[in-house]
Amino acid sequence: MIIQSMNIEDLARQEIRGQPVYEAGKPISHVARAYGLDPKAVIKLASNENALGPSPKALAAVRAVLDELNLYPDAGCYDLSEKVALYWGIGQSQLIFGNGSNDIIDLLACTFLERGDEVVMGKYAFIVYKLVAHLAGAKAVGVEMTKDFSHDLDAMKDAITPRTKIVFFTHPNNPTGGVNKTEDILAFARALPEHVILCFDEAYAEYMDNPPDLRPLIAEGRPILCCRTFSKIYGLAGLRVGYGYGPQTLVQLVQRARQPFNVNALAQAAACAALDDVAFVEKARAMNAQGLVQLGRELESLGLQTVPSDANFLLFKVGDNAFDLAQYLLKNGVIVRTMKPYGLDPYLRVTVGTPEQNTRFLELLKSGLNAGGAR
Fold first, then answer.
1. Domain boundaries in the chain?
2. What is the per-residue pLDDT across 233-283, written as a single tens digit (0 to 9) for each?
3. Which CATH architecture has domain 56-274?
4. What angle do CA 16, 176, 323 make, to 5 degrees?
5. How far apart are CA 107 and CA 33, in angstroms?
6. Confidence category of residue 171, pLDDT binned at 50, 70, 90
7. CA-to-CA distance for 121 and 176, rounded, in angstroms?
8. Coil, strand or helix at 164
9. Which CATH superfamily is domain 10-41+279-370 in?
10. Of all residues in the chain, what percent are helix, strand and coil, respectively (each to 5)?
11. Angle 106-19-225 from CA coordinates, rounded to 5°
12. Residue 348, SS3?
């Protein structure tokens, strides 16, 4: 018997019915199948992954625990918590771990946001902030950014109202790569009203030489949650492990929203080992710095405007046919990120790869421009 009158969508929450779906970068296998390419020849420069691969020490740690997959992971991430607490010089009770830092952001929203609340963020900031706000029934307030696509701190302060519950601040900003001066960030954080939580997303901070340190403000008891991930410079995106740190009271509230066993055993082992892999991190940071120079110089020589970046990617302006150029690159085995979901239609974002990957991208880009694939 088929029920004709029932509409299953009507059973869902209003927020779910209107929720857009996050568009992830296309996987290499999908592109290879779609265009008849050798998967080994496809380069993915769309999702800001580490082109060097995972930390070697993390790989060794994963192999060492493979025989224990019949056991549940440590629900409290005790060993990882101990190590990260020592790394930052903070208490273990100030830490919360998640299935990537996205999980932490979602848990924060789940803990504090209610229908009618507002969240403030840069207009061109990580799109997940808007998604978690919408899902909670809160209003996402996107604030115009500066001409170099960094956060306009005065405009963000002006956007805060009595309904504002969370300010999301990613630094360096994704997808633009922009940064603000440390002293300005600290002054901004100190000026926030007591009812506003600052979520300071540091996903790309390891690529900076001297990233801002908000621990002194956290020690003062300010409602700040900093988020870190092992997906970027440590090369563990496939394992999904991240963490947040802040005042104990705030963190313990967020812990109540966390599902048990949300970080798998392999991820915990890998993250513990990756923290010790200083040589790998330094190598990745050095390669990234060189890659930003290589990409920036060559893109500008092609007459394409680039946005200054302190992360592991570069945003560049192509023109009205940016999407067509991205498709040209895709069909020829180089995956970059289109910016239409952010309202930056004329732009593309490219992840810094190895020198060889960067060179191939640039050669193919030039070919696409010459073939009329853009502008």
1. 10-41+279-370, 56-274
2. 999 999 999 999 999 999 999 999 999 999 999 999 999 999 999 999 999
3. 3-Layer(aba) Sandwich (3.40)
4. 75
5. 36
6. very high
7. 14
8. strand
9. Aspartate Aminotransferase, domain 1 (3.90.1150.10)
10. 45, 15, 40
11. 20
12. strand
